[in-house]
Amino acid sequence: MKINKRRRREFKTDYLKRIKLLKSGSPRLVFRRTNSYLIVQYVISKEAKDKIVFGTTSKKLLSLGWPKESSRSLKSIPASYLLGLFIGKKIKDEKLSEPIIDFGMIRMIPKTKTYAFIKGLNDGGVNIACKKEFFPEEERIRGEKLKNKIPFDNLKAAIEK
Fold this sequence. Notes:
The protein has a single domain (9-160), classed as Nucleotidyltransferase, domain 5. The chain has helices at 6-9, 15-24, 60-64, 77-93, 113-124, 138-141, 152-160; strands spanning 28-33, 38-46, 49-57, 100-102. Helix 4 (77-93) runs parallel beside helix 5 and helix 4 (77-93) packs parallel to helix 7. The chain is globular, with a radius of gyration of 16 Å. The N and C termini lie far apart (56 Å). A hairpin with a 4-residue loop joins strand 1 (28-33) and strand 2 (38-46). By secondary structure, it is of the alpha+beta class. The longest helix has 17 residues, at 77-93. The chain contains 7 helices and 4 strands. It has a 4-stranded mixed beta sheet, sandwiched between helices.
């Protein structure tokens, strides 16, 4: 009986996917979610050693105007879209090369946070190939169905400055 590696047993690393990403030689945009926040890092790998160029979490949205009373929704679809938009603008402003997205062990289900993040990246200027029907509806991206309303237009304008 074969025993899987520890990080595979803990559902942290898919080694087959990691090897394919490392062999591509392109920088990676690592997207992870925790119980409270979303984490994004721009990573460059050389000889299987990762160097983080920059990273941010969805806590950054609080400084851009996200309401404090809605801080528990920093892992929602609107937060994911706005974080993707922020990262896309940062990649374009710093003139970094186009990355490959690394979602790790996150399941890719259409119309969820992961696709909202990709839509934010595309709107931010990073070209990621994805079918349009996988993106969430516009009213979900704007957060119109959230219990605590967020000033989506103000946040988007603050990011696009």
